[in-house]
Amino acid sequence: METVSQERLKRPERLAIVCIIAAAFLIRFIGISFGLPDAFHADEPNVVNRAVAYGAGDLNPHYFKIPPFISYLVFISYGIYYLIGRAVGYFSGTEDFAVLFFEDSTSFYLLARFLFGVLPGTFSVYLLYRVINKYFSQQQALLAAFFFAFSFLHVRDSHFIYLDIPLVTLIILSFFPILNVVTNKGTRKDYVIFGILAGLSAANKYNGSFVYLPFFAAHFLSKGINRSGIFDMNLLISFALSGITFVTAVPFVLFDFPAFFKDLIAMKEFEGYIGFFHHIRYSTVSSLGIPLTVASISGLVLAFIRRRKTVIPILVFTLSYYVVLCYFGQLHDRYVLPVLPFLLFFAADALIELRKRFKYPAAVHALIAVMVLSPSLGKAIMTNQLLLRDDVRTLARQWVELYIPTESRIAIDDPLFSPRLKTSLVQLEEKRREASGLLGGTQLKRLGLMISIAQNDAGPRYQLYFLDDVNRSDFLFAKPRLRYNIQEIKEHKIDYVIITKIKEGYREHFYNEVTKSGTLVKRFTPYRDPARQWPISDFALTGAPSLWSEFLARNRNGHIIEIYKI
């Protein structure tokens, strides 16, 4: 009878977590086809293009500002995709596979987004539940998982293929051995598992190495800060395994160490002091909303005051990661993702403590939890609504292809935030001539394939020029470049200029020159107010908006685009 009773007690919990996981999956899956076949997320091509390039036989990424581990996994998934397609007769050979990617990359992006965005995003919600349930309480676990399932920032970025969501998954996994070390002294198995997970976390994204800080805290709390603790054999094994795992996952950090070291040093250009409150004010509040942020900070302070042994590694990770992020980080909101699940754990702890103090019924507790979550949930829902609609860049491309004659000369203001137009056959052949003897065989083969596709493509193609004052890139497909100078545009007999308004005042002088010298033929805006001239937020959209003011003002994703005939 006792077993049956215990089983009955478990059923509500099981139903609750199943519902939470199912909802987490759905809210991350809806809108997964955003922008396709055009790739509008700024960082996704860094992963996908490299994964495709490995198929030519060169596994050296030649780029180490982000580790190549995820692009290797994407490459493996594409290999399986090809083998299945070949087995069922969809691909007759590798050339068919490559042609599909350059003609319509939709299936490639969908597969990668699902495997490395939606699935790890959903799985991380379940992992958070498991780790808190194991080392704290069922109540905290369910409430933290509920908050995490609908956390706006995690939901938004789970739609895309990049490094951040898999990193969060690996970090949560790392806390199983970390908390086992601090609570149960840990076995060699815990140290071995942690070493492997730490190596994978760093190989996924360099800041994944931060998991060693809570691990050190757990180890020394368990073993003591003394000679035996410092020279503990399990600790040394863990170190060795993490290094071996890292090098195994990204071997070219050794095989091409000069390139790796050069890119690692170059990352300093993009990182620096950004202020202590930026990521609280912009990223955390933007992701969680004010009520959930207040609950998170309250729970963190409460945990700090109590100083329970089990929670110390979580405090160490959350606080140290945030402090380092303030001094050696970037402005983008996604950089707080690694601490997000633990902030939500603290929020759950605070709300449960509140209920213990005031002893209100379960229904009131549930209502408070929903109200606290509602700002984050609202943003997550609105994100999906935007991702389901055609992006401004899609509308602009469709209009250009319909109304601007093929082979017209078009100057593009900012390629990332502008419509994706097809390069003319003439320009592609010029690029091949220019690149002959400079590019490797893989890149020349890619260019030859693009030329072959263009020769058989009856659709509109254009002679594209890229506006760039500082020559930031020698990338072949960002040429030919023109300065932001109306006279130079006229000298090159440009027919149309496509302007993208990223932030107020951005290149306003040049825009005014274009306005005087050209005729506005079409304007596209993501805003409900058609008269709005500039974005509300100064932050360029990597994927989707973050601020409430942007969400409430928009009915589409993207920036304001204006097309001028010169």
Residue share in helix? 55-70%
Specify the biggest β-sheet.
6 strands, mixed
Query: Largest sheet, order of strands side by side?
Result: 3-2-1-4-6-5
Shape: globular
**Count of alpha and pi helical runs:** 25
N- and C-termini, Cα separation: 84 Å
pLDDT averaged residue by residue: 90
Residue fraction in strands: 5-15%
Account of the 3D structure:
The radius of gyration is 26 Å and the shape is globular. The longest helix has 30 residues, at 106-135. It has a six-stranded mixed sheet with strand order 3-2-1-4-6-5. The protein has helices spanning 2-29, 44-53, 69-87, 94-103, 106-135, 138-149, 152-157, 164-184, 188-204, 212-223, 227-230, 233-249, 252-255, 257-266, 278-288, 290-306, 312-327, 340-358, 362-388, 392-403, 425-435, 441-455, 486-491, 508-517, 548-553; strands at residues 409-412, 463-467, 481-482, 496-501, 519-524, 560-565. The N and C termini lie far apart (84 Å). It has two domains: 20-35 and 113-388, no CATH class; 392-422 and 459-565, no CATH class. Helix content is 62%, strand content 5%. With 566 residues, it is mostly helical. The chain has 25 helices and six strands. Residues 1-9 have low confidence and may be disordered. Helix 5 runs parallel beside helix 8 (164-184).
